[in-house]
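target protein:
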Amino acid sequence: MRASQGRSAGLGLALASAFAFGGSGVAAKPLIEAGLDPLHVVWLRVAGAAVVMMPVAWRHRDLLIRKPALLAGFGLLAVAGVQACYFAAISRIPVGVALLVEYLAPALVLAWVRFVQRRPVTRAAALGVVLAVGGLACVVEVWSGLSFDAVGLLLALGAACCQVGYFVLSDHGGEGEDAPDPLGVIAYGLLIGALVLTVVARPWGMDWSVLGGSASMGGTAVPAVLLLGWIVLIATVVAYVTGVISVRRLSPQVAGVVACLEAVIATVLAWVLLREHLSAPQIFGGAVVLVGAFIAQSSTPKSPSEPVVGGGPGGTADVPVTESDAELPDAGAPGTELSGAVVGGAGRDIG
């Protein structure tokens, strides 16, 4: 009963995170159209969130000594890497293509768990990923502007890999007496990400006067500072907090599939608030993503008796069975919590 309640809470947090992340584009687009560079908007987003989370970082300053590699990995991959790679990608390839490639991350998470850590994944999670990626192709209408640019596609794939880092690092160390507080990890991740993005975005060249005016959202003038507040507080602070906690309550692969709802939410919000047209294929694709997410999170175990050894490159650990995992053929008994997570294939455990 308690496990079921925890799973329901995890699903609710994952949906809240997808909604918060999905609303970022709707608030950012008017600021970009008002004259801000996309990278400057990203810098404002991450730097503002880092300032908000600074008291949390001070409270958990012991993490700098206990988990320096985890903090660095989260800041570089989950915060700065995803943002920088994605915005660099859309400067070379269509936004829809870049978004689809980035949201291949749930499939890459499954590949990490199955082939790197040599642990079973659920049939439901695998089917959910296939449906979600297929539906996502319809949501972003990937066929509308596909052009092959090797560098652009590699950058989008880089964003996807960094998003895998987000799910893997969010799950790492979630249990045990030495488990880092997720709020502390997020706070330091934002601080590190802000420092990295400062070098990339060079905010000293930004047109700061835009923030003192208004921006048009679907024909309605909205104070630019209000949009920035939404991006910082909701689309970043709330999004990361709910997202990281949801990964620890669910599994990375299930949370990753639910995160695909971000594209659906972004499209619907753009339709309502920005008056952007929602086509029939997009509506169909959104429904497919919803079905994929539901299938992935509704799996139940076949055999809860035996633990699985997680043989990741950084080490091994017994992994407890949870209700979200079901056994695949010839794969042994299931497990959910990641162990031995490694950044950049360096062969060293995070933290």
Notes: The chain is about 65% helix and 5% strand.
